[in-house]
Amino acid sequence: MVKKHSGMNGQGSRFNRRAVRVEEAQRRVLEAAAGQVVGSELVALHESGGRRLAQTVTASSDWPPFARSGLDGYAVRAADIAEASPEKPAELRVVYEVAAGQVAPAALQAGTAARIMTGAAVPEGADAVVMLEQTAEAMLAYGSRAVLIKRAGAAGQHIAPCGEEFRRGGVLAVPGTLVRPGHVALLGTFGYAEVAVRKRPRIAVFATGSELLAVAAQLAPGRVRDSNSSMVAAMVHQSGAEPLLLGALPDELAAVEAALAEAWESSDIIVTTGGVSVGDYDVMAELIRAFKDGSGVRTKVQLSSLQSAAERPASRLLFDKVAMRPGSPTSAAVIDGKLLFALSGNPGACFVGFELFVRPAIHLLLGVREALPTVVRARLLTAVEKPSPHDRFVRARLVIGENGMLSADPLAFAKSSMMASIAEAEGLVIIPAGSKGAEVGEAVDVILIP
Amino acid sequence: MVKKHSGMNGQGSRFNRRAVRVEEAQRRVLEAAAGQVVGSELVALHESGGRRLAQTVTASSDWPPFARSGLDGYAVRAADIAEASPEKPAELRVVYEVAAGQVAPAALQAGTAARIMTGAAVPEGADAVVMLEQTAEAMLAYGSRAVLIKRAGAAGQHIAPCGEEFRRGGVLAVPGTLVRPGHVALLGTFGYAEVAVRKRPRIAVFATGSELLAVAAQLAPGRVRDSNSSMVAAMVHQSGAEPLLLGALPDELAAVEAALAEAWESSDIIVTTGGVSVGDYDVMAELIRAFKDGSGVRTKVQLSSLQSAAERPASRLLFDKVAMRPGSPTSAAVIDGKLLFALSGNPGACFVGFELFVRPAIHLLLGVREALPTVVRARLLTAVEKPSPHDRFVRARLVIGENGMLSADPLAFAKSSMMASIAEAEGLVIIPAGSKGAEVGEAVDVILIP
């Protein structure tokens, strides 16, 4: 057990946590994560969807690489059909055909046409394609074939010129881009059979709290199951990273230090839940305080395997209180160069802390350019009648109305522990510090949740 | 090579494709996929995120399972602090403490208090919790401890009563639900260490077209790389299914028949790209025609390994033309009970065909209740000045304005082959059949794209 601090002094140091504003806390996280982009790996193109690019993608050729027929029909010289009409169709001798994948045996001469298929290379000499449906076949003397063109056409019709869509060397996507199906199409077109993507950052996750049981365990008096570890694992997956679950630990400093050391060895970021409040057994808060006592100063907490971590400039507290609800005790530190997030054990606060701080940090490690959450404007469908001295993040459902207006419908905002609303939430409505809440119809900022 | 049909008769039968409206085509797909839900499998809770539930999730206990303290402080009897004030604090003898995970040794008597931590079980007899910050410690005679409560409190404060959030047996999520992090938290809370989720449907994918090269190949005159297979694979992954890539095939009936047979054996749905138009070598169109010649009638196409498939009632054409742009030749059939989608080889049309028909079919196999794409209203940011006799699906970026209004910005709508816009698209603007396009500011329906 953590040594209990009794008397007012002990409590005093425990309460001596200065809240920073959310933006400042985020700034500190992003600054600490800067330059920590993880390495890259090559994956097969068809497995690159959903990953983050680690390379610049450029066009390896002009595209289309040749003048392509846009449909099935006949390649012609536009001059030959300039006057064609249903009454007076142009009759052109069919000299060859070009299937997709083939090339014409010769340039197309005046007065002739070539049967051509969608996607085939337009023969030299031809400068228009006529849709099959606007033609009829005919026979000429001596059994040679002809085509009747019943409509006038112009040069260029139904032809995609070489290089129309892309020029060789043009940049198609930059590092950090999320690979969507359309990117996969581009990569395939330009011959990227393998793609350099960011490795999945490894995120160590553990929960602290002597009340915690494994999910598989039977309930016992006073005990609850550790649901946060699995929830955080799901959020880590969603962020494009790989969770390493280290389990639920009792509120014992030695156990938590050992887990931290293991996490530090095996991961890029460490996320813990619980133990960050002002309670007598809040072991994460206890550990975090160590970083506060100043660099170069020997701290009272011994990080056994990370000895003197707090003495190195690479170890420091980022914040141990954030001016927000829920989740004000959310804390973050750098331990010997690695980010540690100590999230609240309250599931709702844990969820908000992840969205505001952990997901952006993972994004930075993945080289994502806009790492912070996306914020949009919406109208409130239900009032939030709860004043708060701090920014409040209210889980909400999002609705796009008949008129195209985005609305946010707050879910059970009064109780941040209301777990059901986490599953339903599509956004976090931001109620700014100092307001008395927000009225129905008021315009609010909303953080989009994946 | 497919036997070439020369003369007007051959062309006539090829053009004899009756377009169905998109809604009708979707209806036929959903009807054909109904009842084909794939089997389930158990996965570890922390790996269940992003999967589709195959079970109903219920609360296995009341929640909280006991009256829980909402914060760190003192459990008291509200009657004892009803009159407390800074000037006249209530002084209560501290009889024990309850850490999270512990249970009180005895019921709380009048005039006493128990130190209690966040999440701990509130002792019997206590009916309020006082925040630590509103208390001070004191010493009584003979060294026993006391606490001074400086503020009046009411019964129930800072206590979450047993069963406040959930009642045992209450339904938390139904089959088909996408497991989000919040669901994982619920599942963990109620002891679901393993979760029954739908298996990933296996989607066989191949491309047809003699012009197609493998992605890894060097370009050659008249040839292009098969980018559709990998794009479709990425979309299949995105839909929660597993792609089986069978490669790019030349326009040869025997090769395609063999691939179809292999696909049929190994997959739940077959998706092909290319070869659906009216060209002379459009082998998928050729195959699809076989299903049109009526059930019970011997067709001219021999599906070698699927002999007489067309003779079985379980094999039938669903549609071979859809009244839409791009992608009008998009076709679908049921082959011996399995869905076959023959998408256009044009990447933009292939993309739209997947969103409109294949993703909903995969959703049905996953047991998703609302299988069709989500449609929202938005204002157009740029005019679509292109009349169309058919519904047109225009790729667009989506923007939520300062006023909360959703807008759609069409991307290069004129050329459905413009691949760059696939990667950027967040929605498909629907320009209804018969309209002359759409004006700036006009309200339009938009299909959301993942």
From TrEMBL, chains A, B:
Top enzyme class, one word, equals transferase
Show the catalytic activity.
Answer: adenylyl-molybdopterin + molybdate = Mo-molybdopterin + AMP + H(+)
Q: Provide this UniProt record's keywords sorted from A to Z.
A: Magnesium, Metal-binding, Molybdenum, Molybdenum cofactor biosynthesis, Transferase
Q: Record's SMART domains?
A: MoCF_biosynth (SM00852)
Name the cofactor(s) required for activity, per the record. Mg(2+)
* Superkingdom of origin: Bacteria
**Where is each MoaB/Mog domain found?**
204-364
Biological process GO terms, please? Mo-molybdopterin cofactor biosynthetic process
Tell me its EC number(s), please.
2.10.1.1
Q: What are the recorded GO MF terms, alphabetically?
A: metal ion binding; molybdopterin molybdotransferase activity
Task: Name a GO CC annotation attached to this entry.
Answer: cytosol
The family note in this entry says:
Belongs to the MoeA family.
The protein depicted here goes by the name: Molybdopterin molybdenumtransferase
Species of origin: Paenibacillus endophyticus
